[in-house]
């Protein structure tokens, strides 16, 4: 590896660890500070933290890889995500910020669910915590896989060594700095990703010998088709990725952490501007990469490494190091957020409830740090499968959260009549439907259920039906719960 590249990457690692040390000194004395940054994030930090933790390695590797292979038909994923993110900011962000504070100052999503529905027996809290831990361990492993591929492809290290190096740095700053470290590093990482997703596709495009459409037609005429070789159901499945936003704990927890209700609007403008540029950049990277590699006769064995290949071929080692740092930023920002949310659930929703109710703040922070390490080790174990697809792993976990939590979050914020049995039914039906859709040995026209339609679609629909049906068939929520709902509505009207 070139000396310039090593220098750039070394500076990146030093900055990340330095932020972790700063955050360690600032905000880890109590659980609220460690898990939620004391609800005092600036809207710019919260917005880029949400974007960076959302996009992960798939925005620089997974999505460009899909575009490289299939062309314009993969763009529907990006379109669905942009629409879903905008709806999430509009529908969920302001209400969740107010409601979580009203609901006994909930600092985790399971905590919010339990307080929102007066879950005295902790059934909803436990089920939601299990969903978070199971799907986030899978989700985290996708980021670890991306790190392994990065180090193997670019640094000449073994895939396994890449897993440990990537996870090790993330664990260090997450372990000690908590939510503030994760959010501040996400902010820096989001800026790096933003620049990288402008620079790489722009430079690649300027070096093409023919107009982009003409070259893509030579690569494969189907790449210019928006429907491609798929179907209308394929487009629906791709755009349905947007439904997942309503149920992603590592994203919506940022709405809970921003300073106040008035900051949500600023956060939305910053976050959506960042996301649109990032999505367009990722799409352009895949398309321009396909055209450039065809013109230059470059063999790309793994489509998900096209960003890496372009970075190394087209740029000075110092710039290449910066671009590789962008991929590390994307990977690490998501891993850190997922580790922290999983740690929060293990600490607040298991340890504090079932092992030691009177645990001190320092003890809970210690348990949170140990939990970060345990989840990271499980993710590394799952990532040892070298053939794992980043986009496939992300899609499964994204669907699991979207179906289990998405309808539950929306109905809990907007429907006064929703009750605890309805919430439980919706979460269980949503998660079970996704798992069935992925693993059941059932086919339609020779296709597996997941190939026929993305599992989040049936999961989201059936979970919504279960929430409404069970809530209406069981006892109305207590007066205290409806009073809290009304107070939130009044506060939102005033805000």
From TrEMBL:
<dbReference type="InterPro" id="IPR001734">
    <property type="entry name" value="Na/solute_symporter"/>
</dbReference>
<feature type="transmembrane region" description="Helical">
    <location>
        <begin position="364"/>
        <end position="384"/>
    </location>
</feature>
<comment type="function">
    <text>Catalyzes the sodium-dependent uptake of extracellular L-proline.</text>
</comment>
<feature type="transmembrane region" description="Helical">
    <location>
        <begin position="191"/>
        <end position="208"/>
    </location>
</feature>
<keyword id="KW-0813">Transport</keyword>
<keyword id="KW-1133">Transmembrane helix</keyword>
<feature type="transmembrane region" description="Helical">
    <location>
        <begin position="6"/>
        <end position="24"/>
    </location>
</feature>
<dbReference type="InterPro" id="IPR050277">
    <property type="entry name" value="Sodium:Solute_Symporter"/>
</dbReference>
<feature type="transmembrane region" description="Helical">
    <location>
        <begin position="422"/>
        <end position="440"/>
    </location>
</feature>
<feature type="transmembrane region" description="Helical">
    <location>
        <begin position="228"/>
        <end position="253"/>
    </location>
</feature>
<feature type="transmembrane region" description="Helical">
    <location>
        <begin position="306"/>
        <end position="331"/>
    </location>
</feature>
<feature type="transmembrane region" description="Helical">
    <location>
        <begin position="45"/>
        <end position="68"/>
    </location>
</feature>
<dbReference type="GO" id="GO:0031402">
    <property type="term" value="F:sodium ion binding"/>
</dbReference>
<dbReference type="Pfam" id="PF00474">
    <property type="entry name" value="SSF"/>
</dbReference>
<feature type="transmembrane region" description="Helical">
    <location>
        <begin position="452"/>
        <end position="473"/>
    </location>
</feature>
<keyword id="KW-1003">Cell membrane</keyword>
<feature type="transmembrane region" description="Helical">
    <location>
        <begin position="161"/>
        <end position="184"/>
    </location>
</feature>
<keyword id="KW-0915">Sodium</keyword>
<keyword id="KW-0029">Amino-acid transport</keyword>
<feature type="transmembrane region" description="Helical">
    <location>
        <begin position="274"/>
        <end position="294"/>
    </location>
</feature>
<dbReference type="GO" id="GO:0015824">
    <property type="term" value="P:proline transport"/>
</dbReference>
<protein>
    <recommendedName>
        <fullName>Sodium/proline symporter</fullName>
    </recommendedName>
</protein>
<comment type="similarity">
    <text>Belongs to the sodium:solute symporter (SSF) (TC 2.A.21) family.</text>
</comment>
<dbReference type="GO" id="GO:0005298">
    <property type="term" value="F:proline:sodium symporter activity"/>
</dbReference>
<dbReference type="InterPro" id="IPR038377">
    <property type="entry name" value="Na/Glc_symporter_sf"/>
</dbReference>
<keyword id="KW-0997">Cell inner membrane</keyword>
<keyword id="KW-0472">Membrane</keyword>
<dbReference type="InterPro" id="IPR011851">
    <property type="entry name" value="Na/Pro_symporter"/>
</dbReference>
<dbReference type="GO" id="GO:0015193">
    <property type="term" value="F:L-proline transmembrane transporter activity"/>
</dbReference>
<dbReference type="InterPro" id="IPR018212">
    <property type="entry name" value="Na/solute_symporter_CS"/>
</dbReference>
<feature type="transmembrane region" description="Helical">
    <location>
        <begin position="390"/>
        <end position="415"/>
    </location>
</feature>
<keyword id="KW-0739">Sodium transport</keyword>
<keyword id="KW-0769">Symport</keyword>
<feature type="transmembrane region" description="Helical">
    <location>
        <begin position="123"/>
        <end position="141"/>
    </location>
</feature>
<keyword id="KW-0406">Ion transport</keyword>
<keyword id="KW-0812">Transmembrane</keyword>
<dbReference type="GO" id="GO:0005886">
    <property type="term" value="C:plasma membrane"/>
</dbReference>
<feature type="transmembrane region" description="Helical">
    <location>
        <begin position="74"/>
        <end position="92"/>
    </location>
</feature>
């Amino acid at each position: 590896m070139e000396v310039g590249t090593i220098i750039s990457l070394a500076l990146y690692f030093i900055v990340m660890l330095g932020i972790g040390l700063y955050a360690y000194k600032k905000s880890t004395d109590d659980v609220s500070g460690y898990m939620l940054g004391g609800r005092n994030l600036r809207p710019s930090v919260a917005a880029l933290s949400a974007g960076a933790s959302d996009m992960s390695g798939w925005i620089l590797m997974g999505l460009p890889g899909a575009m490289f292979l299939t062309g314009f038909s993969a763009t529907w994923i990006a379109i669905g995500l942009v629409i879903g993110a905008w709806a999430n900011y509009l529908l969920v962000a302001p209400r969740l910020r107010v409601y979580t504070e009203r609901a006994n100052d909930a600092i985790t999503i399971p905590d919010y669910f339990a307080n929102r529905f007066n879950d005295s027996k902790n059934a909803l809290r436990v089920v939601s915590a299990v969903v978070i831990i199971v799907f986030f361990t899978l989700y985290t492993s996708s980021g670890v896989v991306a790190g392994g591929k990065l180090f193997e492809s670019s640094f000449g290290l073994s895939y396994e060594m890449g897993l440990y190096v990537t996870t090790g740095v993330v664990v260090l700053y997450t372990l000690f700095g908590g939510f503030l470290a994760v959010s501040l590093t996400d902010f820096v990482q989001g800026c790096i990703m933003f620049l990288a997703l402008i620079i790489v596709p722009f430079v690649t495009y300027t070096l093409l010998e023919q107009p982009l459409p003409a070259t893509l037609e030579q690569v494969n005429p189907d790449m210019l088709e928006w429907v491609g070789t798929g179907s209308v159901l394929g487009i629906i499945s791709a755009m349905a990725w947007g439904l997942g936003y309503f149920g992603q704990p590592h994203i919506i927890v940022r709405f809970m952490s921003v300073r106040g209700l008035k900051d949500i609007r600023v956060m939305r403008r910053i976050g959506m501007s960042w996301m649109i540029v990032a999505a367009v950049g990722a799409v352009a990277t895949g398309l321009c990469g396909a055209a450039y590699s065809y013109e230059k006769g470059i063999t790309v064995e793994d489509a998900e490494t096209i960003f890496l290949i372009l970075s190394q071929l087209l740029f000075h080692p110092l710039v290449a190091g910066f671009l590789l740092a962008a991929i590390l930023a994307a990977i690490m920002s998501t891993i850190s957020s997922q580790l922290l949310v999983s740690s929060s659930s293990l600490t607040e929703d298991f340890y504090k409830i079932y092992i030691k109710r009177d645990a001190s703040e320092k003890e809970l922070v210690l348990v949170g740090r140990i939990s970060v390490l345990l989840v990271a080790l499980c993710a590394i174990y799952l990532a040892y499968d070298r053939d794992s697809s980043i986009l496939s792993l992300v899609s499964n976990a994204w669907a699991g959260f979207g179906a289990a939590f998405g309808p539950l979050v929306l109905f809990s914020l907007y429907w006064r009549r929703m009750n605890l049995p309805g919430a439980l039914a919706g979460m269980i039906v949503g998660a079970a439907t996704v798992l069935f859709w992925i693993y059941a040995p059932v086919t339609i026209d020779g296709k597996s259920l997941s190939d026929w339609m993305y599992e989040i679609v049936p999961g989201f629909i059936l979970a919504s039906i279960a929430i409404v049906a069970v809530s209406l068939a069981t006892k109305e929520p207590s007066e205290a719960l409806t009073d809290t709902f009304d107070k939130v509505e009044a506060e939102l009207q005033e805000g």
